[in-house]
Amino acid sequence: MSMQLPLAQLAMLLGAKLTDPSKGEVLVGNVASLDAAKEGDLAFLWDEKFAPDAETSQASAIVCKDAIEGQTCLLVADPQQAMLALLRQVHGMRFPTPRPGVHPQAFVDDTAELGADVSVGPNATVEAGAKLGDGCQVRANAYVGRNVVLGAGSVVHPNATILDHCQVGERSVVWSGAVIGKDGFGFVPVSGDRRDLSQGSIRIPQIGGVKIGSDVEIGSLTTVDRGALENTEIADRVIVDSQVHIAHNCKIEDNTVVVGRVALAGGARIGKNVYLLQASAVGQGRTVADGAIAGSGAQILYKDVAEGEEVLGWPAQPAMAERRLQVILTKLPKAWPELRKRVKQLEKKLAALGKTED
Amino acid sequence: MSMQLPLAQLAMLLGAKLTDPSKGEVLVGNVASLDAAKEGDLAFLWDEKFAPDAETSQASAIVCKDAIEGQTCLLVADPQQAMLALLRQVHGMRFPTPRPGVHPQAFVDDTAELGADVSVGPNATVEAGAKLGDGCQVRANAYVGRNVVLGAGSVVHPNATILDHCQVGERSVVWSGAVIGKDGFGFVPVSGDRRDLSQGSIRIPQIGGVKIGSDVEIGSLTTVDRGALENTEIADRVIVDSQVHIAHNCKIEDNTVVVGRVALAGGARIGKNVYLLQASAVGQGRTVADGAIAGSGAQILYKDVAEGEEVLGWPAQPAMAERRLQVILTKLPKAWPELRKRVKQLEKKLAALGKTED
Amino acid sequence: MSMQLPLAQLAMLLGAKLTDPSKGEVLVGNVASLDAAKEGDLAFLWDEKFAPDAETSQASAIVCKDAIEGQTCLLVADPQQAMLALLRQVHGMRFPTPRPGVHPQAFVDDTAELGADVSVGPNATVEAGAKLGDGCQVRANAYVGRNVVLGAGSVVHPNATILDHCQVGERSVVWSGAVIGKDGFGFVPVSGDRRDLSQGSIRIPQIGGVKIGSDVEIGSLTTVDRGALENTEIADRVIVDSQVHIAHNCKIEDNTVVVGRVALAGGARIGKNVYLLQASAVGQGRTVADGAIAGSGAQILYKDVAEGEEVLGWPAQPAMAERRLQVILTKLPKAWPELRKRVKQLEKKLAALGKTED
Questions:
Q1: Are C243 and C226 in contact (CB under 8 A)?
Q2: Which of chain A's residues have a Cβ under 8 Å away from the Cβ of B340?
Q3: Shortest CA distance to C305 belongs to which of C281, C288, C322?
Q4: DSSP category for residue C225
């Protein structure tokens, strides 16, 4: 936010009540978090857990629900909505939509079909038969392969790659460095025996595709491999972070959130509304049912995860059991030698007792 | 597969015997797995472990060795070979070889040498002194650096990067987003003392290269770093999945399979016919000998792995020991407090016994 | 090193004393490590730990501090400095600085400002308002976004991506496939309840940037996400390896070394002179203080790390405790059933004793 706005004007923009009308001329020029804000910054108390930070914040004004003593406040009914609205405006200014049109240094094949207001940036490639819906953005240096379908309003960021025949729904975003549609990792040993690689491996041609729904986000440097026969599928409103690996023929259902560095092996099935947290992994063909949570680093290798279940650990087990195990393991360096010692003393005493009795 | 073929014609193509000649006119238009197939699909029983799926499959026909009751079958001597042959045909249609020639929007340096039938896609770069063997494909937006050598028939996919002086053998494939030949991670603290970073680090110039053999596959977003003095080496028929990290001066011998998210630290030595499974890691200078298996997530940090050995765990140990450990750990949350309780009771009883005796 | 140099000339170049002047005409044509060197190679004994390799080395000559019996030596006061000086010369020849100028097949927006001797390679993109300091190199197929600032002498390698508004200091290097400035992973469930994803997630617009200092190295396929409100910050002389994930609003202070596959969750704070070793991870908002060491695979999830502390394990704990735990766990498969058996025997004996007494 490079402009400066007086608080009175900001109050009007946000539909807010300025608690101290004498501050109407004070200028703010930046949005900052409560604890990092300094004079000239605007901050938001959008979650009550940050209330202590609000009291001591150096921000010139705080957008909040109820007045905070000693602070200049802009009162609104829903601070989170107000924050999102303002951030969207600032974001729109900082990251303006590119002008429609194909850049003269882009390559778009003659047989590609472009909807209205599509933009294709410099050094981007759109191959034969690709279909780009209205308002799609293919940014500079991005690659869109043969017969790829992009729904209206989707964005392919610089240096992202969408290989042949893959489909992306509407308003979805593919970030820089992501690779959609690499062949699935399907090989069989020439020998026919899984343990014998001495003659090398034969590639099983992967003829499936990747089908991504609408309002999906695919993070940077994330791979979504094409299916062997059928499609790899990611449903609507799925949010995928960066450096995630989604192997061939996985299915992820609506609304699921996949955090950074997660790995899904071939054919993993992830239900709706699931959280797969940082660096968790799901083994080949495993199922994680609706509403489940895989905690950070959980390795779901040997057992499926039931609806709503929370798992943790390597290998994953119910979160409560894993937490108990962690507590025991933390104590083990002291507790294990101690217990052994106690058993040894018991043995000695009992032996001594035996001798006494003889 | 967008065409429709009658079973009689497919039988001829595959050299198969149609078990129910009355079905010769039935059309199939897609290849699917036994469990996912529906009417109009063709499925293959290429491994006997899927026999139960074959019995209940909804496919219009199944390619198999022996007739299956209640199913329309196309009998062949080797269903896996038949499947591969058909998949290759379908794959060839879906992913046709690009036309030979340099795209007008590519950049190929005048001093690069191109063999017969080489194709270079739009927005691709081939730098000075590069040598591309007959039939090489450098796809759109790929980068091939100075003096890089690509053997005949090799493919560099969109947005892949092969940096200066690296060598790739014949018929090898480098997938989108892979980076071959980044400098090895070689730094020494300015202070000269490994524990003292207070003056920053000096980069050790990395003058080695990367040498990749023939029939190798390098997955998407995989890095193979150049060697410090000598080459980092990957031998023939090595298969590397996506998001793998191969550090400077590693050596991987023939036929080895490296699954997704594996990490090899500097100077790791991997023998022939080895499996490094999902997210396993090999520490600096460690050796994994011929035919060994590193299970999912195994961290080979403190000990080399012997020929044919299977290891698991963090840190890695022989697989049987690790499996026993896992069983014990799963029981520990209940078993550990219970054992402590039993020891305490023994101590009490013994103390009581002592008192009785006094 | 493709040239051949006689040892006498090399001695002059390095300011070294040749121990056997009769060898002045012997040619060397390559630098190699002591153990891999063969006739015609030059090797360096730059760390005394390699002294045994020096004695048996097949190198034509060894650069070292003190003469080695049976070897032709080039004596210098500081072999490491001599090695670095020679490697830099060889490196400069193998990887020459590109000629200044904008390649005709690059796209540089008219409003971008380029300092003296800047080079922009083929198929590279430099967007509006970008400022490139003197001597910057934007290599082929790299992307530099709107209003990006690159300090003098910085290098952006092929297929690297620096998105809008990010700042990089002087002499810093961004390797191929790295992505700087992807939006931070900031989402809130539409439902307002963290456990309820059934209505999908709302993206929180990320309006912060990324600020990278001088003499920094960012490895291949590493992501540095932009901050939510404030910048994600990486200070001077920080060295980051490949496939590292640095989430929004992390701060890394001077000189810290971040090895391959490390993951920093949102808002992690890393002090000065820290080592984060291979695949270690730091949880959301966690602090790792100055001079600390996170060992390979350490997961810093539940506790901050104090100044100079060394941690290990999953979850991380002080390294000594984790090492003791590892020793115990290695023994557990044998020791646990054995201890249980001993307790059982004690119980039996005590019961028998009780009976005897009755």
A1: no
A2: 335, 339
A3: C288
A4: P
CA distance C31 to B206: 11
| C-alpha to C-alpha distance for C78 and C95, rounded to whole angstroms | 25
CA B291 to chain centre: 16
Q: Which H or E run includes A56?
A: helix A51-56
Q: Does residue C165 carry a catalytic annotation? A: no
Name the 3-class secondary structure at A78. coil
Domain boundary among C47, C63, C94: C94
Using an 8 Å Cβ cutoff, are A101 and A119 in contact? yes
d(C-alpha A7, C-alpha A19), whole Å = 11
Cis peptide before B315 (omega within 30 of 0): yes
Where does B65-115 show beta strands of DSSP type E? 73-75, 101-102, 107-108, 113-114
Sheet holding B310-312, edge to edge: B101-102, B119-120, B137-138, B155-156, B173-174, B217-218, B239-240, B257-258, B275-276, B293-294, B310-312, B317-318
> Phi then psi for A229, rounded to 5 degrees?
-115, -55
Closest residue, chain C, to B223 (C-alpha): C220
In chain B, residues with a C-beta closer than 8 Å to the C-beta of A283 are 278, 296
Q: Which residues of chain B does C323 touch, with a Cβ-Cβ cutoff of 8 Å?
A: none
Confidence (pLDDT) at B1: 41
Evaluate whether residue C346 is within a structural domain: yes
Domain boundary among B94, B119, B142: B94
Question: For the segment A16-59, what is each residue's pLDDT rounded down to a tens digit?
Answer: 999 999 999 999 988 888 988 899 999 999 888 899 999 999 99
Residue pair B213/B172 in contact by the 8 Å Cβ criterion: yes
B262-319: pLDDT as tens digits:
999 999 999 999 999 999 999 999 999 999 999 999 999 999 999 999 999 988 999 9
Smallest Cβ–Cβ distance between A297 and the set C314, C346, C349 belongs to C314
Q: In which band, very low, low, confident or very high, does the pLDDT at B25 lie, cut at 50, 70 and 90?
A: very high
- Burial label, C188 (beta-carbon count in 10 A; 0-12, 13-18, 19+): middle
Task: Report the residue of chain A nearest B274, measured CA to CA.
Answer: A197
Pick the closest to residue B152 from B102, B116, B100 (CA basis). B116
Count of the separate structural domains present in chain A: 2
Exposure on the CB side of residue A186, measured as CA atoms within 13 A:
20
Mutation target among A243, A258, A330, A348 for the C interface, most CBs of C within 10 A = A243
Query: Best of C229, C232, C242, C327 to disrupt the A interface by mutation (most A CBs within 10 Å)?
Result: C229
* Cα atoms in the 13 Å half-sphere on the side-chain side of B339: 25
Candidate from A87, A241, A336 with C-beta closest to C185: A241
Res. C112 pLDDT band, cuts 50 70 90: very high
pLDDT in tens, A337-348: 999 999 999 999
Which of A120-134, B96-110, C42-56 is predicted least confidently?
A: C42-56
Residue B224 falls within a domain, yes or no? Answer: no
User: Distance between CA atoms of A107 and B263, rounded to whole angstroms?
Assistant: 36
Instruction: Name the closest residue on chain C to residue B350, using Cα atoms.
Output: C350
Residue A203 in any domain: the answer is no
List all residues 6 or more positions away from B185 whose beta carbon is below 8 Å from its beta carbon. B225, B247, B248, B266, C219, C241, C242, C259, C260
Residue A17: count of CB within 10 angstroms of its CB: 12
Quick check: A196 and A178 in contact, CB under 8 A?
no
Q: Which residues of C touch B204 (CB under 8 A)?
A: 84, 87
Q: What is the CATH number of the domain that holds B75?
A: 3.40.1390.10
Is C76 within the bounds of a domain? yes
User: Contact A263/B259, CB-based, under 8 Å?
Assistant: no
Does the complex come out with an ipTM higher than 0.90? yes
Give the structural domain span for B348: 327-358
Residue matched to tokens 């030949």? B181
Residues above pLDDT 70, as percent of chain A: 98
